[in-house]
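Sorry to interrupt, but I need a hand with the structure work. Could you write out one complete protein record for me, on any chain you like? Just paste the record in under my message, thanks.

. . .
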Amino acid sequence: MNQITIPVLPEMNQLWQESLNWVPNDSQQQHFQRLYQLILEGNHSLNLTLITEPIEFWEKQLKFQTSGPRLKK
């Protein structure tokens, strides 16, 4: 199997703060990096998602998963 290069996720603290009023700590950031790595490795062999770049990981995985339900008024 071909080795793939996994980019390091940039710290997007301002984006986290603006969108969720929250910023991940170092441990959480490491967990996100590991999740990103696993997603890219899975995509490499199974083509599971369209996620290839760090910003896509943010938009399609982290933001969606951490935003929680939206309540209608």
In short: The helical segments are 13-20, 26-46, 54-67. Residues 26-46 form the longest helix (21 residues).
